[in-house]
Amino acid sequence: MAIIDTEATLHQAHRDNHTHRDVNGGWLRPAVFGAMDGLVSNLALMTGVAGGSVSQQTIILTGFAGLAAGAFSMAAGEYTSVASQRELVEAELDVERRELRKHPQDEEKELAALYVSRGVEPELAREVARQLSKDPEQALEIHAREELGIDPGDLPSPLVAAVSSFGAFALGALLPLLPYLLGASALWPAVLLALAGLFGCGAVVARVTARSWWYSGLRQLALGGAAAGVTYVLGSLFGTAVG
Question: How far lies 46's CA from each of 42, 112, 192, in Å?
């Protein structure tokens, strides 16, 4: 009885520790990239303009313009990119579907040969391929995974990618603009809030990656700070030259 209980505990522990996060949902990459891009690009844009010694209203208008233009641009780019990739995958799936319909035996032999190349005994590989090929939809899914490295039922959504990118960029771009909207007249509150946001975003991203939170946060802080610093210097130089 104790042995059975121990085995049950081990199996439960294995199940608890063997769950995986969704890495193909199509929302994480555009959301992360959108938030980071919104923070860095709008912070850099606003500091560059502020370096030219312009009015507070000009900086606010610049921030809003950067937010709107960047969010729509990111959403359109993500939608087009993901839609094009999905259309390419669906075209390849149609090719595989036609081959399964026209040459089912050849496709079955191809699948068996693939399993043999991975170390399965030939007789067992042929039997596995035969059983998997009974259901056309299952056969398509298996061939797509083995030959194309994709899951036909888990393709990323262009709309999800676009909405995620738009919302994340807008939120990121809003951070450096927020102090000005609340009445700040100097640049440093916007810079501090944006840099804190960059560190926070990097730390949050570390929750779904293998990096430590402080490393990911400092990396984003350094990249964003460098971009803001460079554009401020350029804005100061060009502002002086134009003036």
Answer: 6, 60, 13
